[in-house]
Amino acid sequence: MDREPNVKxxxxxxxxxxFVLSGMYEIEGKMITGRHxxxxxDGMVVLDGVAAGGExxxxxxxxxxxxxxxxxxxxxxxxxWERKENQRxxxxxxxxxxxxxxxxxxxxxxxxxxxxxxxxxxxxxSSLELLKAHAVISRSWLLAQIYKENGKDGNAVAGESDAAGxxxxxxxxxxxxxxxxxxxxxxxxQRYQGITRETTAAVRDAxxxxxxxxxxxxxxxxxxxxxxxxxxxxxxxENCWEPVHHPYLVACRDDEDEADFPDxxxxxxxxDWIMSSPRAFCNTTDENVLRQVLNNYDQExxxxxxxxxxxxxxxxxxxxxxxxxxxxxxxLDLRPVARGTSGRLYKLxxxxxxxxxxxxxxxxxxxxxxxxxxxxxxFIVERHDVAADGYPGKFVLRGAGWGHGVGLCxxxxxxxxxxxxxxxxxxMHYFKGAAITKLYETxxxx
Length: 446
Known about the structure:
By secondary structure, the protein is an alpha+beta fold. The protein has a domain at about 5-200. About 20% of the residues lie in helices and about 35% in strands. It is built from nine helices and 24 strands. The strands form five sheets. Strands 1, 2, 3, 4, 5, 6, 7, 8, 9, 10 and 13 form an eleven-stranded mixed beta sheet that branches. The protein has a five-stranded mixed beta sheet with strand order 11-12-20-19-18. Strands 15-14-24 form a three-stranded antiparallel beta sheet. α1 (about 110-120) packs across α3 and α2 crosses α3 (about 200-210). The longest helix is centred in the first third of the chain and has 22 residues, at about 130-150. It is globular.
């Protein structure tokens, strides 16, 4: 059985990083504490005016009682609720110089990392079974990334990738674009906000009760994805990221009757599904459940199961040009080309006055059609106020779900927890044929 590994989490990258050490930290044989500032000068970390090298690491003298605060950490990068806040962390602080900036990295044991992730991804007051389920999938996903990086896993690795032609541009974004740390602290990977988010006894109990437990399939760690709301049916992995099929990430209905759903890859079926409000675990307006899952800034999004976005012709043309970097001129149409198993588009044709281009996958579509990100790519397009030359004056997007829809649906899992399902039942509902395995149990201190 393996020992508990450490994780390196990239927190922020700025020209100047301010931080406050509470307690004594060791750096190159010296003990320091208090407020400090690091800047990047010609690829060197300059700490409080003194060159300290290409990278420096500060290790706590007392793990339990030492912590450090980073000033002005950006959360919700490129999302509608993006903001800055000060955040506090336990573990070691590592500073490195890259691309003219200083990157702050938190190094700590996986189990301690998970206590923050569970509290950051959801409310720490969620039901115990939901917290246990989330602990297992967060641990599984994290270790799958670390094992890939260390060459212990045979799965294919792909970062931002594209298949570009004169009339098609297909991209997907995954965590492998991080080269200096294992994962970042934002939604690109898993939300991690140190000890800034209060960890409750329930979160600690959930992490401890599932210590070292991971999801495995056919002898390999599962790439255990999750999103806020699937919209009623799960999406398959390959429709969002690299073209690799994972048998445990397949289409099912988010309901007790898992097989009761139409073929949402078909346009007519997808349109009917999106325009209706079908039964699903994640189809809930129960404020008690939503408060358990959604932090304050997530609760700013109230219409996650079915939603509507409207653009004028001028707004949409300007938005697409700004977000894609391509001048399409006026927009004639947004045409579905390919949908996945949840009805999410992974190919969309933008027909413009000057240019026609098919884009994908789902995140690229969401990025292109919103100042931040559309809630999901499961949407239909309505053209209104069509002029004599065929160009609409207004576009309305009607959509379903929040996020990519692959793996565990956080809203659906929260409802299952409230209904009395165990964490093992929740996990088997979302990860078909996977097995829960204990990978380690002894801690490795940093």
